[in-house]
Amino acid sequence: MQGVPLAFPFEKDSAQFRRLPQVPGVELYHAHIERYAFEPHSHDAFAIGTVDFGAERFRYRGAQHVAAPGSLVLMNPDELHTGQAETVGGWNYRMLYLEPATLELLSGEQGFWFTDAVRQDPLAARQLSAMLAALWQTDDPLTIDSLLLQIVAVFRPHIQVSRSLKAESTHRFDIVKSYLHDNFSAAITLGQLASLVSLSPYHFLR
């Protein structure tokens, strides 16, 4: 993980990572940081997350921001930022890193861009935290796809999109039903089902 040390110098600081082998371009991150201060660094993916308790202060795009419970943290790829505890006892937070190409495939849209690094939205923050926790625990391909699309729906109101990808107008869901019938014992992904009717997983689920 870019910007995160292999080992923290302070025993109360810790971080865990998880990649999803079924979905390239996705990485999960869960950490509790009390004393460590992150030097300026960037990620080559969109960073979407929330704080479960405590608060974080970070510098991003020339300004200082504070993220606390009830807020969404939304950062664009390749943007330098820092990070340190704002409260005594540090902060506990969950992040999802989505590469631009992966987000485009999931959503069926191009040109995503966050305008605000922190957005106050307590309901969305609670939903995001619960979805990220569930995503960490599952290995089921269809559940992973579904959770990722639910997460996209949570932060979708807070992001700008330049345009949607073209999708087929004819939805032949009888093909989907037939496919599910013929492959009922297989581990099927949402991406496989969406591709049958030429839709992105996001638009298929909707």
> Biggest sheet, strands in spatial order?
1-2-9-4-7-12
Instruction: List the secondary-structure elements in sequence, H or E.
Output: EEEEEEEEEHEEEHHEEHHH
Radius of gyration: 18 Å
Strand elements, count: 14
Count of DSSP H/I helices: 6
Commentary on this structure:
- With 206 residues, this protein is α+β, with helices and mostly antiparallel strands.
- The protein has six helices and 14 strands.
- The strands form four sheets. It has a six-stranded antiparallel sheet. It has a four-stranded antiparallel sheet with strand order 3-8-5-6, with no helix packed on it.
- Strand 1 (14-19) and strand 2 form a beta hairpin.
- Helix 2 (122-137) runs antiparallel to helix 3.
- The longest helix has 16 residues, at 122-137.
Structure, briefly:
By secondary structure, this protein is α+β, with helices and mostly antiparallel strands. The chain is built from six helices and 14 strands. The chain has a six-stranded antiparallel beta sheet.
Topology (SSEs and partners):
Elements: E1 14-19, E2 26-33, E3 38-41, E4 46-53, E5 56-60, E6 63-67, E7 71-75, E8 81-85, E9 91-98, H1 100-107, E10 109-110, E11 113-114, E12 118-120, H2 122-137, H3 141-155, E13 159-160, E14 163-164, H4 173-182, H5 190-196, H6 201-205
Antiparallel strand pairs: 1-2, 2-9, 3-8, 4-7, 4-9, 5-6, 5-8, 7-12, 10-14, 11-13
